[in-house]
Design a protein that fits this description.
With about 120 residues, the protein is mainly beta. It has one domain: Sandwich (Jelly Rolls), CATH 2.60.120.10. It contains one helix and nine strands; from the N terminus they run βββββββββα. Strands 1, 2, 3, 4, 5, 6, 7, 8 and 9 form a nine-stranded antiparallel beta sheet that branches. The longest helix is centred in the last third of the chain and has 4 residues.
């Protein structure tokens, strides 16, 4: 039988400014460890700590622009700007840092496989 998710759970965010994270599927809201699905809304100027997660993260940008910094093959920092209507895959084991530098911030959906957890996100100190 299908499982109805009647509403999300608001999750505490990391970063220099408050960001809204509404988890629909995941360890907190549905007790699901295989995957997590969250609706994110971050303000202009938001920046979170870098991380080297142990999960793949698939992100679809609905509004605005999400900047994804990453380490290049030679170890320098590069970045991808992901605009509304685009998606990005951050692969497990790769260093990344998300931010929303443009006016209006960004709104996006993030899917993590396996589900996001504080123990496996491996944020920078």
């Amino acid at each position: 039988m299908p499982t109805l998710i009647p509403q999300p759970t608001r999750i505490q965010s990391a970063g220099n400014k408050p960001k809204l994270i509404d988890e629909y599927v995941g360890r907190v809201n549905s007790r699901t460890s295989a995957a997590s699905v969250a609706h994110m809304r971050s303000p202009q100027g938001w920046l979170e700590p870098g991380q080297t997660p142990e999960f793949d993260e698939f992100t679809i940008v609905l509004k605005g622009l999400l900047r994804v910094e990453h380490k290049t093959a030679n170890g320098t920092i590069g970045s991808l700007d992901v605009a509304a209507g685009q998606a990005v895959i951050a692969h497990a084991g790769e260093w990344i840092r998300y931010s929303t530098p443009q006016e209006g911030g960004a709104e996006y959906i993030a899917v993590c496989l396996p589900a996001f957890s504080m123990e496996t996100v491996n944020r920078d100190r």
